[in-house]
Sequence to fold (598 residues):
Amino acid sequence: MKVRTVAVYYVFTIWTRIFHWLMVGAIAVLFCTGLYIGNPFYIGSQGVEPTFAVSNWASMSTIRFIHFAAAYILMASFIFRVYGFILHRGDRMLPKPWTKLFWTGMLDMGLHYSFLRSEHRPYLRNSMARAGYGGVYGMIFLEAFTGFAMYGQIDPNSWLSKIFGPLNHLLVDEYIVHMIHHYVAWMIILFVIIHVYMATRADMSEKYGEISAMFSGVKFYDKEPDDIGDLKK
Amino acid sequence: MKDVESLWDLFQRRNVSRRNFLKTCVTITGILGLSPSLISDVVSAAEKQPLVPVIWLHGHECTGCDEAFIRSQSPFASDVLLNMISMEYMDVLAAAAGEPLEHHLQEVMKKYNGKYLLAVEGAVPLNDDGIHCMVGGKTFVHNLKEVAKGAAAIIEVGSCAAWGGIQAAKPNPTKSVSVSDVVSGKTIIKVPGCPPIPEVITGVIMHYTLYGQIPPLDSKGRPKQFFGNRIHDTCYRRPFFDSGMFVEKFDDAASKAGWCLYKVGCRGPETYNSCGNMRWWNGLSYPIQSGAPCIGCSANNFWDNDPFYNRMPNIPVPNAIVNADQVGIVAAGALTAGVVIHGALSTIQHKRHHKETHETENDNE
Fold:
């Protein structure tokens, strides 16, 4: 039996972990219900009289309600995220393009992922992942803004419409807002595929505990990670 | 015409009874969407407010908005024109034409400087110094700027004036823009639609005539009482949407039963207009009621959101007609295949590397 000596790093607080899994659930629900809303089809629950069909479990109205509820859960879960962000340095691993480490790390990962470098330096979170997470937060916020811009207009005099409504004019018209919302949803799914793959890959080849870290909050390293400065001062 | 007078003056001059005058005021209150408690305000406005001189300019457009305007039934367009406003210049309805009419325009502009209401129909072409639309030997953009200077307020009648319309659709060869793109510093009311609902045009004019002020506008300048709600939220077919009962094809049973037109491209969910509640031709019908999906004619840039009978626009992919969902499924599939291959290659690389390091470790021992 081979003995491996590792140091244990507490990276993610419970708040970020709760946020992460709430987000996973919410986005899964949002994407599925969103696809249905964009292209509804007969799913057997509809009758021939709308008076009765509307209260069925899978009517358009119910599915839209689930979509909006999941959206509110996603938005509310950001409270956990922000709390963790304030509380703990490990929850603050942002992309830092003004540092040299960000760019050397980017090159390092680029070469590694294109099989030109068999091993990469140890990182708490590598530059590509940082950039990717920055991007997905951007996409989620874009979805939130466009979503509220459309949702708020149910009552054009509401405060929600006052805040987000002007976005409909800023982006030419509400139809374009619908399209952006739809396209970005697909981009988030493409991100998810890459994200799940990369996490699994790292977990299997590097043994830092990449996947379990999102449950336990800790990672294991043989060597000190290059970006340890983000965790300790 | 003599000095402008009020609606009540006009009724008296024509020997119409006070009773009829009050009836008219009640009707107007209703049309403007005002509460019945405001009838007395409307009456006093109609007694005192002088009739507003209106100048109606035509630019880069099809006069379809005029066709709509003259079909207004409550109030009748003829009533608006003859009794409620003093229409001083409108090329298509004026009895005079040519030099005398253009001369009259100059006189009116001087006489009512700062007081007249300017209604503009049509986009403003800017390319090649604006020569793509000439009125009376001058470019429309020149005329518009000149007349706009002395206007109390400007109404953009129709989607062309409000957004640029079909002229501004891609590729916009004449570089057409909306009126508000070339006129600044004036109160501008957008009344979009291709054409706008007749009663909406007359309603906005009447509101200004009676109150001497513009109606409450939304952030883009559209009167809230007419453009406050989506057609979708006021549509009588909305229960079918909420229930998930959709027309799939124009000749299917659902279409005959009058189900929701969402899947055949209805733009009601994105379009703000009064079609759902006021309807057209005195409440007779509107496109959705006739079984045709809304094309969003009062929305900015709606011409470019084609095809009109699809929920989503096509994504330009060579040799294929596909929408975002189809592209998304293929992209997600390709990406999944990609990561699987990358994963397999990574495993091979990892094993090889492991072997090498293992060997070196052994050598060192």
The mean pLDDT of chain B is 88. Chain B touches chain A through 51 residues (CB under 8 Å). The first helix of chain B runs from residue 7 to 13. The radius of gyration of chain B is 29 Å.
